[in-house]
Amino acid sequence: MATWFITGCSSGLGHSLATAVLEAGFSAVVTARDADKVRDFEQAFPGRALALALDLNDKASIAAAVEQATARFGAIDVLVNNAGYGYRAAVEEGDEQDVADLFATHVFGPVALMKAVLPAMRARRQGTIVNFSSIGAQVHNPGSGYYSAAKMAQEGITLTLKTEVEPLGLRVMVIEPGAFRTDFAGRSLKGARTEIDAYADTVGPRRKANDRTDGTQPGDPRRAAKLIVETIARPTLPKRLLLGGDAVEIVRKALQAQLDEIAAAEVASGATDFSKND
User: Of 133, 134, 144, 148, which is the active-site residue?
Assistant: First the structure.
């Protein structure tokens, strides 16, 4: 029986995924900063769910959680880095500590967790690592510069890891969700401490106080969780898994715009190469 280790299980996609994994008959290590918020999984799925406290900003917490998970289930077969939150601020407004915390949660913490599970996975030549990114890694909206940068960094590391460990028998995938009906645009969304009036027309409409999308997002977390479980059960993983019809449409348009831009500059770009006559 495969064992999943999932971060950010107290709400949202993480909670739905943990539920889907356990309902499918797998074991799951369900984590949150406060283990009491995920203790109900142990009661609902006795013997197969282990609720653990996990602080992605604390390497000791990461090491302890991995050690406890391994002691309980013997091995971690699937690691899912899901924990995260939104942050909106104009680039000029970004608070240094807020940005550092954002990268700690979305980049450095997940990297530390991957490094904690990789030795055992390599030794067994078996294991799957899945990291939740965002369509924000593909499209860059006003006010989401730091969030997009964190997700782009996470994707760069994840997809590079894929090239490094797949020859060793491991599997790696990035998930890019669109808008799902979770707390992401509500409780989990943070914003600039100080707002600059000059950005009222660009960043303003997307500030938390003006965002009216919470509770109206098209994505169903339960259906997304089911698709993730089904996808990971397949022998071969895609490089990226888009979640939501909006994600497909938005990313397709973004990629087509990039292709059009490349085509428009193709001749000029190629002319910068050394000439055979030089």
Answer: 133
Q: In the annotation, is 162 catalytic?
A: no
| Known catalytic membership, residue 147 | yes
pLDDT at 213: 67
Residue 146: active-site member: no
pLDDT tens digits along 39-55: 999 999 999 999 999 99
- Cβ neighbour number for residue 200 with a 10 Å cutoff: 12
- pLDDT 10s digits, 187-235: 778 999 999 999 999 999 988 777 666 666 767 889 999 999 999 999 9
Catalytic residue, from 16, 27, 148, 151: name it. 151
pTM: 0.93
Ordered domains of the chain (ranges, CATH)? 3-249 (3.40.50.720)
Structure tokens at 10: 């107290």
Mean per-residue pLDDT, 236-246: 93
Question: Any idea of the CA torsion for 189, 209, 97, 37, to the nearest 10 degrees?
Answer: -30
